[in-house]
Amino acid sequence: MHVVFVEPSFPANQKEFVRALHEAGAAVTGIGERPKDSLDGDLRRWLVHYEQIPTVIDADALVRTVAWVSERMAVDRLEATVEAHVMAAAQAREALGIHGTSVRTAWLCRDKPAMKDVLREGGVPTAASMGGDSPDEILAFAARVGYPLIVKPRSGAGASGATRVDSDDELRGALAASGVGHGGSVAVEEFVEGHEGFYDTITAGGRVLHDFVSHYFPNVLEAMRTRWISPQIVVTNRIDSVPDYAEVRALGARVNELLGIDTTATHLEWFFGPRGLRFSEIGCRPPGVRTWDLYSAANEVDL
């Protein structure tokens, strides 16, 4: 098995994916933005080859480089584990006929309004939302749904760039800051009250092979808005023995089905509150902030 891995040296935990692939017997080629002489000794041992390109989010450059690599050694998989790299990797896969996450699935897992439109149509409980570039249309949505609302980038990761607004004036300010009305576009959604958690999987052929649950305290948005807070992620290894997690698992399976998730790691965020379990968003990638290290420790495995 020959795996091309996108950006093996940054962030720091990326090298652990390369290590695990190497230990499993895969030949691993790295493609990244840093020069080859910046790779540490471990990566030099674990990689069979490395190519530097100006930016790994340039799909055309990625296609050219992977094609060049495949002429020398057939490529079985092309993997990216960072949110910003997922779409370019999917485009390269489709261009070169490599199995893995499709462009459609990558786009639905990046564009939050489109993601939630598909899931609502499929019966998944999720917040009312819209994507828009018109202040008037967004203010009309606010009038229908009510405050508070969350304004965030259409393709941001987690709560990155998210803002809570509680009035028309605050909404207008957030839209102006995002350039809405001047070429900018944002996702706007109903604020969901409740406890926040993660449901993360390793999925192959559309079937969940391994799954994990963690809980985030306080909620991500509150932690990011109040910087003195040191947020805590609490991991459980009781997913098989606590009946309430069955509902989370069923939600995750339905989301995977509707978005066409086939073979990838996934990171799903959910809320549970007065209205019950609600979907928040999903990425077709592993969770960040070394959460997989926590799952490995809690379950005595090496992910």
Give a description of the structure.
- The chain has 303 residues and is α+β, with helices and mostly antiparallel strands.
- The chain has three domains: 2-100, Rossmann fold, CATH 3.40.50.20; 128-190, Dna Ligase, domain 1 (2-Layer Sandwich), CATH 3.30.1490; 195-299, D-amino Acid Aminotransferase, Chain A, domain 1, CATH 3.30.470.
- It has helices at residues 14-23, 41-46, 59-72, 86-96, 103-108, 112-121, 135-145, 168-177, 220-225, 245-259, 291-299, and strands at 2-6, 27-32, 47-52, 77-79, 129-132, 149-153, 163-165, 186-190, 195-204, 207-217, 232-236, 264-273, 276-283.
- It has a five-stranded antiparallel sheet with strand order 11-10-9-12-13, sandwiched between helices.
- A hairpin with a 2-residue loop joins β9 (195-204) and β10 (207-217).
- It is globular.
- The mean pLDDT is 93.
In short:
The chain is an alpha+beta fold. Helix content is 36%, strand content 27%.
Q: How many helices?
A: 11
Q: How is the CATH topology of the largest domain named?
A: D-amino Acid Aminotransferase, Chain A, domain 1
**Largest beta sheet, briefly?**
5 strands, antiparallel
CATH class call of the largest domain: Alpha Beta
According to CATH, the homologous superfamily of the largest domain is ATP-grasp fold, B domain
**CA(first)-CA(last) distance:** 18 Å
> Quick one: overall form?
globular
CATH architecture of the largest domain: 2-Layer Sandwich
Number of structural domains? 3
Percent strand equals: 25-35%
Number of strands: 13
| Whole-number mean pLDDT | 93
Strand order of the largest sheet: 11-10-9-12-13
Computed structural class: alpha+beta
The arrangement of helices and strands along the chain is EHEHEHEHHHEHEEHEEEHEHEEH
